[in-house]
């Protein structure tokens, strides 16, 4: 039996070219091996390549804290966890499965490391944030960046405690954080030194 043309495979999967790019909750990583992908029935043709790409996205999210990221032992991360602990709180990961944590279009709270940040033409910062479960992209409004309280603190390695953040979801599987001045509860500079060495991250959440 003849296989359907490549374009028919793509229609059956309801996939367009944009799906080949990584979603907001994942990030490319340099590695000598591919992420582990569960067993599945391979689809022939270009549609099969798309299928593998989607499986790798899932594997990337699963492995969000299994890559030996030293940031979770850094001074700002430890200090942020201690800060939450002093307030009787708990640090958990929500980015990898953020839909479970969104209420009325907002994320109640998050503790995250800045993994990348790039200014845009509007003066905002486009950032990639990482919590103990995975990654998400977002934008920090220029009024936050220009606020004297946070001067030069929004750099790679800094840790943010966020609250009541608006989540923009152009697709069911794609989410972005829109961070304004009201959402920034605390910022821990990348140069902050930890006060103790017994707080860190080794799983999907931390009881603190």
Automatic annotation (TrEMBL):
One example of a Gene Ontology biological process annotation = recombinational repair
Question: Can you name this protein?
Answer: Homologous recombination OB-fold protein OB-fold domain-containing protein
Q: What Pfam families does this protein map onto?
A: HROB
Which residue range or ranges hold the Homologous recombination OB-fold protein OB-fold domain?
106-191
Q: Which organism is it from?
A: Artemisia annua (Sweet wormwood)
UniProt xrefs under InterPro entries: HROB (IPR028045), HROB_OB (IPR058570)
